[in-house]
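Researcher: Please translate sequence to structure tokens.
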Amino acid sequence: MKKKDIILIIGVIIIALLSILVNKMINSGKSDMVVIYVDNKLYKEFPINENKSIEINRGKNKNTVYIHNKGVEMSHANCQDKVCVKTGFIKNPGESIVCLPHKVSIEIVSKGKDKKQHDVIVN
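Model: Translation complete:
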């Protein structure tokens, strides 16, 4: 390898490490609430510091959301792919779990002085 190749590789590694660090800093806020949406409508909000199991039953669609250890996970879903269950435990603001077949999404949000605002414009 030439000197320029080594410099390029080191530069790419530094940029990757910086982007990971910036992402950690942005999402390191205090988690306060678990927000559940069904069909893109607010279903319920729960404090993240309580232990609670929530059943979401809509006809044949059944999901179980489990809030514990200052985080949340989808512990059961009767959809075929179970991507939402495989997502696992989340605990940081901005993280989410989505069950596309049942149109259920769970998001961790921060409500307080350290809340980070994300602006999104959709056309």
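Researcher: Any highlights?
Model: The radius of gyration is 19 Å.
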